[in-house]
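Page 37, continued from 36.
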């Protein structure tokens, strides 16, 4: 950061996004404003951790004040609440840079969500989200920040009433903190209770009891000693038996910046070749920025209790919903962040923690299927990315994967469940991909599978298009798309008493040959289908070509490959097809019908007819004929 100073007060406008956010904070009523305190304390703790880290290389920054701490001061008389820390501090330029813009990507994502939200429900989201420093304006009519960066003589102030501008000014060093930052809130009338001791005690204990810096509470004008609200001890170093579920939940909220509860807590100490402690959580709800590509890992790296970085990639991308920390006993403290990323110690940690999280998920799946299903519901689409990204753990991930299927009645099924229900002579695991479950479940391609009682996995996620193309198998059975290639279902008998069994296959080879001839430019083949029982026709992707759904996705991303001509499959049990085979209608009329059937199959896939105008003409000719 820069150390540029100011010689006179300067007033500047907030960045547009900040103004929008502040406007909402100031002009709306929120159910839960307590979060502002958590946000300010978390900033103070971050500042202390940053100093602790910088002091490894420059111990003089600590001077004779090595005890890092946060002090909350109440002044009932003046109606103010002050949060002070002796952490890294900010120069005037730092303040201009960080307290007038929106830094973290999560906040941007949150803002977008608010902006997209037209019903005002988003306003309640503020309470759940926090949105950092600016949440101070939920309770304060004026906020003043006085700060001095560690190791510097100059101090500066930042102040604003939250209405569009802020002012940065030099301050007399004698009145500024020796080091660090003091944030003073002039409380709004309706927020005066935040100057009450019991209110602040309650909130700090509940929200910030586990920040890794001790927190003290003082009352202005009172003789009583400052009381300690939190001891700053590292929760992860305590024995599990001393930690309650509430302790874990509080810690989770402060380390993850989330407001929900952990759905799974993984806390252990690895010993042996490498020693490290791990405390990680899987959230109960989906974080806003799960699908932001540039989002950092959310696992903090500590070395012997000193926070080093939250940018080390400790977990693979497909575990990016996991929050928490790793504290290594072996990494050297004075190693640069870049060197750490390359270190073999870190790769051992990465491997160990990833394996452990997957095995804990596996245990949970076995011991409490409902709790596991809730995690899968939120993060399954992310975990499935591992099926193509992480070849080494693919088998393990396949065991963890859950599916909705044609047989699951909306419940989640595992592949183990699936292979347990294989039909006689069934040699593949069948799946259907589509934009959403309803659309997939009603696809004509499933008819023949239903009639035979063959279970089909319904895959609605974008990632399903990718892992399924990687030659994955399970229990020796390949995965096979119901919309691609020839399927020979005939060895698997139709369910007894099914309508199809009563509806025998007709000889329609005449029509098949005719259609193959007239549609030669549009399709790569016309053949009799095993997949259909009630629909007359469907299209499928040829063997060795790209599956239909993937083709569509690539096309919509502007990356359309040369489209393979589809195969038209016809239903030899269908009355229309049988009639066509015997029909004495003119060749032109049968031609029209062949083209119309192909377009019908396209429409059933959610596509447009090949040429809508020609399609309409054919349809009109046919209707005119019917009316005589
Ligand atoms: P975030 O903490 O997610 O970065 P905030 O809005 O809470 O977002 O804070 C914005 C920035 O302001 C911080 O990243 C930090 O650089 C700076 N900041 C806020 N409070 C302090 C503080 N007490 N000491 C030092 N820097 C601070
Ligand atoms: Mg913050």
């Amino acid at each position: 950061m820069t150390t540029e100073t100011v010689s006179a007060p300067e007033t500047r406008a907030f960045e547009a996004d900040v103004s929008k956010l502040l406007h909402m904070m100031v002009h709306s009523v929120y159910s839960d404003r307590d979060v502002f305190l958590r946000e300010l304390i978390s900033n103070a703790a971050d500042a202390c951790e940053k100093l602790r880290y910088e002091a490894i290389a420059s111990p003089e920054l600590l001077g004779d004040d090595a005890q890092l701490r946060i002090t909350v001061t109440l002044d009932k008389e003046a109606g103010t609440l002050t949060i002070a820390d002796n952490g890294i501090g900010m120069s005037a330029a730092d303040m201009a840079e960080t307290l007038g813009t929106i830094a973290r990507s999560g906040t941007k994502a949150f803002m977008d969500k608010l902006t997209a939200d037209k019903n005002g429900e988003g306003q309640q989201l503020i309470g759940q989200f926090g949105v950092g420093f600016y949440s101070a304006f939920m309770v304060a009519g004026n906020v003043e920040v006085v700060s001095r960066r560690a190791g510097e003589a100059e101090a500066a102030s930042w102040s604003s009433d939250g209405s569009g501008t802020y002012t940065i000014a030099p301050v007399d060093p004698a009145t500024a903190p020796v080091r660090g930052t003091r944030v003073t809130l002039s409380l709004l009338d309706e927020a005066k209770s935040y100057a009450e001791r019991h209110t602040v005690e309650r909130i700090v204990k509940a929200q910030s009891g586990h920040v890794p810096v001790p927190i003290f509470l003082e009352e202005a004008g009172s003789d009583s000693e400052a009381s300690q609200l939190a001891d700053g001890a590292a929760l992860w170093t305590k024995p599990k038996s001393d930690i309650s579920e509430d302790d874990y939940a509080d810690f989770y909220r402060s380390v993850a910046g989330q407001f929900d509860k952990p759905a799974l807590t993984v806390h252990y100490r690895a010993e042996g070749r490498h020693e490290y402690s791990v405390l990680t959580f899987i959230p109960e709800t989906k974080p806003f920025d799960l699908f932001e590509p540039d989002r950092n890992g959310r696992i903090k790296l500590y070395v012997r209790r000193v926070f080093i970085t939250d940018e080390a990639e400790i977990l693979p991308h497909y575990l990016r919903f996991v929050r928490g920390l790793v504290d290594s006993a072996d990494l050297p403290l004075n190693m640069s962040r870049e060197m750490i990323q390359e270190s073999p110690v870190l790769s051992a940690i990465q491997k160990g923690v990833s394996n452990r999280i997957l095995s804990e998920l596996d245990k949970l799946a076995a011991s409490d299927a409902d709790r596991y299903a809730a995690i899968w519901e939120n993060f399954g689409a992310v975990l499935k990315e591992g099926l193509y990204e992480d070849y080494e753990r693919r088998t393990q991930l396949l065991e963890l994967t859950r599916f909705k299927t044609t047989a699951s009645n909306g419940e989640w099924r595992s592949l183990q469940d699936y292979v347990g229900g294989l039909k006689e002579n069934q040699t593949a695991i069948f799946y259907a991909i589509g934009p959403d479950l309803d659309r997939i479940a009603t696809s004509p391609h499933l008819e023949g599978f239903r009639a035979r009682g063959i279970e089909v996995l319904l895959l609605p996620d974008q990632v399903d298009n990718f892992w399924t193309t990687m030659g994955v198998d399970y229990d020796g059975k390949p995965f096979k798309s119901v919309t691609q290639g020839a399927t020979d279902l005939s060895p698997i008998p139709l369910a007894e008493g099914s309508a199809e069994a009563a509806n025998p296959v007709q000889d329609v080879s005449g029509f098949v040959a005719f259609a193959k001839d007239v549609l030669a430019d549009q399709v790569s083949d016309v053949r009799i289908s095993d997949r259909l029982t009630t629909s007359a026709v469907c299209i499928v992707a040829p063997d060795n070509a790209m599956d239909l759904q993937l083709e569509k996705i690539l096309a919509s991303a502007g990356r359309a490959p040369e489209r393979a001509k589809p195969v038209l499959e016809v239903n030899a049990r269908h009355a229309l097809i049988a009639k066509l085979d015997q029909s004495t209608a003119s060749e032109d009329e049968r031609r029209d019908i062949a083209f119309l059937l192909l377009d019908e199959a396209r429409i059933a896939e959610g596509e447009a007819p090949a040429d809508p105008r020609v399609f309409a003409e054919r349809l009109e000719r046919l209707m005119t004929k019917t009316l005589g």
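The mean pLDDT is 89. Flag for discussion at group meeting. The first strand starts at residue 10 and ends at 13.
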